[in-house]
Amino acid sequence: MCGIGGIISRGTGSGKELSFQVDRMLDVMPWRGPDARGVFEAPGVALGHLRLSILDLSDAANQPMSDEHGNVLVFNGEIYNYRELREELAEVHEFRTQSDTEVVLAAWHRWGTECTKQFNGEWAFALYDVRKKELILSRDRFGIKPLYYCLDGGRLCFASEVRALLASGVPPRVKADRLLQCIKFYQIEPLDSTLVDGVLPLEPGTNLVFPLREEALRIESYYTPADMLTSAVPEDPRQAAEEFGALLADSVALRLHADVPVQLMLSGGLDSSTLVALAANKERQRVKTLSYVCPGSSADESLFSSQVAAYWDTDHERIEFGNNDFFDIFDRVIEAQDCPTHSADHVARYLLYQQAATRSKVILEGQGGDEVFGGYRVQYNVFREHYEARLGVRLLMEMPPKPRKSSIPRVEEFGKDYWKRYRKVRRVTQELGSGHPYVDQQYMTLRNSLPSLLHTGDRLQMHHSLEGRYPFLDHRVVEFGMSMPVHHKMWTHDKYILRRNVDARNLLPREVIWRRDKKGFCTQLQKCLLSSPEAKKHMYEVFREGVQQYPDFFSLSGLEKLLEEQYVHGVNNLQRLLAVYSMLRYMEKNKVQLAD
């Protein structure tokens, strides 16, 4: 796990001038690579790298890395099947390191852009092909690792974080419709745009090719929605459960491999508990586990996480939110996220990863299980509406009640002239159209909701120089899950095939396996905020200063209504209040200009 940045230019600018700008890009994200730093320069191109050492800790594995043909690579991520690929490529390449970075270079030389189809992993890389004089950017299938770019005529800049592009000279202009999208739908980063005008994310499952000698830029998809539906899944539930169990166990085993300490996040839910069981079942020593607990909260899962830790005798640690200054940490979260955020839970995650970083450089998390196998309210609703009666079954899962949210004041009431011009702004979504409601909903969740969760995880983890790995997002696991018949995924319980496999192998206590209650990430932070008059006063001061700076955009009276409803009438406006608060903090720090 690392940070990358670079510039390629068809116009003016020597390699030395470009490398100076790339150095500034690396300066603003040092947490991504505290172990080594390097910059490659050549006429018209400069590539920079910050290293967080995970595999082959020697200096020989530092980047930028070049091969015997002169090709140069800066790489962020992990290729989990690199040992198998290395064995195959050893026939045509003499390896000098034990790193997966060198495997990427060798794979590129053999297969070109088709090499990405060979990789099982998460990555964002930039490779300069010295013979063709072109730069190739690539991002993994599901967008686990971030990669942004900005195209300005004959010049392309790219980086792991948007802040690095701003440091290279990209102006911090923001369009009003994107601000509204963030505050109205809490959609910080759709797949095809960012908050900053002109800065784009490279979409998951794509390669970008920028030739120095031609005007054309090519963006090519190597992984399509149809690829997710290609797995051959047995009709027999028992056989399907066995095959899936073997696949997930292999995914966990691949992600446990590292030359540094590894630990697992254990919430007490089915997904993280299963990963702990599979890891502990494989390793010959006690695995490290870490839980965030909320004693006294109805959402607390510490009973279950403690059961799992005891069941496998893990080296278990628990942390809980203390009497911290919420807004002090929330400001650090906004800085780490490199964008506004709406969730108080991100403060708890920040503290969780901060603690995790004291014991390891790598963590395994259960992200992806809900998206791929149906663990959200919306998927329960689709199943109940379209499948329950036909299958003759009743889903027993229970969700906590939704908190009462305000219908007034509407977003437009605390915005002014700019907001009125964008009243019809819509949430950006991607749809599959498979003809099967459940599969379509899975895809919607995977493509529209998962990216923001991965964004949060990557930024908060890497801010503490911590690598996150997600066994449920192994592309083989995703394809198996997406291709399964609905009745394998959901029956009396969600993730039915996973529960059957874990139960048959006695991997977890049955109280954990067959839980009906579904809980979200547990914190006491909302309660702390609502009981604090200082919090209300602090938010008001930030709102007042923001309105003074952007008088055409925000209405102080509308924001006062939100605060009044929240603190006097008990209506849940907290997400929207934090979204506005973090937006103003982000705009202030980055000296944001409204693009239109």
UniProtKB/TrEMBL annotation:
It catalyses: L-aspartate + L-glutamine + ATP + H2O = L-asparagine + L-glutamate + AMP + diphosphate + H(+). Keywords: Amino-acid biosynthesis, Asparagine biosynthesis, ATP-binding, Glutamine amidotransferase, Nucleotide-binding. GO terms for molecular function: asparagine synthase (glutamine-hydrolyzing) activity; ATP binding. L-glutamine binds at D100. Residues 2-213 form the Glutamine amidotransferase type-2 domain. NCBIfam families: asn_synth_AEB (TIGR01536). InterPro entries: Asn_synth_AEB, Asn_synthase, ASN_synthetase/amidase, AsnB_N, GATase_2_dom, Ntn_hydrolases_N, Rossmann-like_a/b/a_fold. It comes from the Bacteria. GO terms for biological process: asparagine biosynthetic process. Belongs to the asparagine synthetase family. SUPFAM superfamilies: Adenine nucleotide alpha hydrolases-like, N-terminal nucleophile aminohydrolases (Ntn hydrolases). Pathway: Amino-acid biosynthesis; L-asparagine biosynthesis; L-asparagine from L-aspartate (L-Gln route): step 1/1. The active site is at C2. This is asparagine synthase (glutamine-hydrolyzing). Its EC number is 6.3.5.4. PROSITE patterns: GATASE_TYPE_2 (PS51278).
